Input
Amino acid sequence: MKKEEGSITVFYSLTLLMTLVLFFTFLDTARLVGQKIKSEVISREAVMSCFGEYLRPLWDTYGVLALDSCYGGEGTVDLSLMEAVMGEYLEENANPCLAGENYYRLGVKKCAIGEYGLITDQGGLPFLKEAALRQKEELPQQALDALTKQKDQVEKDREDTGNVDQMIEKGQKAVKQAKEEKEKQAEKEKREKDAGKEKKKNSTGTRSRKKGGTTEEEPAENPMDRVMDWKDSTILSQVIPSEETISTEVLGLKEPVSKRPLAKGNTSEEGFSAVERALFTDYEMTHFQHYGRDFGHVGLQYEWEYVICGKKSDKANLAAVVEKLLVMREAENLISLRRDPAKMAEVESLALALVGWTGNSAIIEATKAGLMASWSYVESVLDVRTLLSGKKVALLKTPAQWTSQLLCLANYFPVSVKAKECSEGIDYEEYLCIMSALQTQKSLGLRSLDLMENVLHLQEGYKNVTMDRCVYRMKVQFAYESQPIFYSQLSGIRNRFPICHFKGIGQINYLTT
Output
């Protein structure tokens, strides 16, 4: 059979070449679109995979997300280490080690962190906002409003009533001054009268009793002296029974976050709103253990008290909180006293019995104020005992809710005696909320981070972690390149097809995840 010879024209050859060029161009263009999408996906995955290695003890204990930039090693903020970690994730996804052809392979040319934020920035603001975010869905608006109202009321009452200790001291001085004047008057009368003439004493500041047929005068008892002597004893011994165990834990940090120079990120967050502040207070209640409530955290047992007072030991923090609590209760009880006509009549009667004979209105008023302050202090101690036992007391008391009596204040010194419970009052946790609301944003943020760093150092493998190297957000710049595959199959023009470059940005923020 005769074989036929084939031929192709030059025009047909050029047409076929142009068709192949166009076809391969379309293929490479489609591949580039897919590579662009892939670069965005693997960039996001790299950032999220990096931030997925957060400090697990912080999450388990406090529900807070933060990434140690040094991954448990020594040193300060290490961006290059995080970049290397993300680079490994990128290489695995951009150019996987798989057999066969992969038309979407990418070459990683750049992975550089541009912006980043540390959880300690702006006085711990990122932590505060993250904690508030955790509570956002749990705390109703009514609770926020009630907390704000209580805090404003306590703050106003403290400003209106003044310092109880100063009032008692002024009252003591007034009584002392009255006694000195009485002694001077007695000496003057003694010189003026004959030695054998019986002195007449008409002072209203004494009461008489008969002894051996003669009249002997006895001064009225001054309760301020005994109250001030009692106040000199340790504050915790006045409110907590000796048989009750008080934590002796001490903060283990040599240089707490709140007291050392801190590294800083290069980005910032907006301010801390009133709603976020109230949400953070609720976070403290549910995440920080405190007196009467144990969450099983290692380290300090009175964490909430530490955030409020910042002392090194549990005992010192509890004592400081009790002092603040007494000041709050003293203000409320003074207002309750002033509103009760019967109790004010008792105060005035005793003041007149002590110094009324002087006729000096300034001395009498100072004595009245001192008696009111003494009475208020004793009632406040009873209140604190009730609060520490887990019960409630009224913010402002009615006469029926009042416990102590002015003429026998010493009877209430034993620590077993407590104030009357009020089911509609507020408890110890609510007072801690009020105290927390009165703290500065910086104190709340950095002292909370003190607790977290302390807990981390007590965990194996986290002894080198410091909170001011923990990242909560970052913005990363990526660059990739793509070699042509289909277009370059055409010999003679394979080197003319340019290498394609992709750029991308990956962002992540624990405050929005």
The chain has 15 helices and six strands. The mean pLDDT is 83.
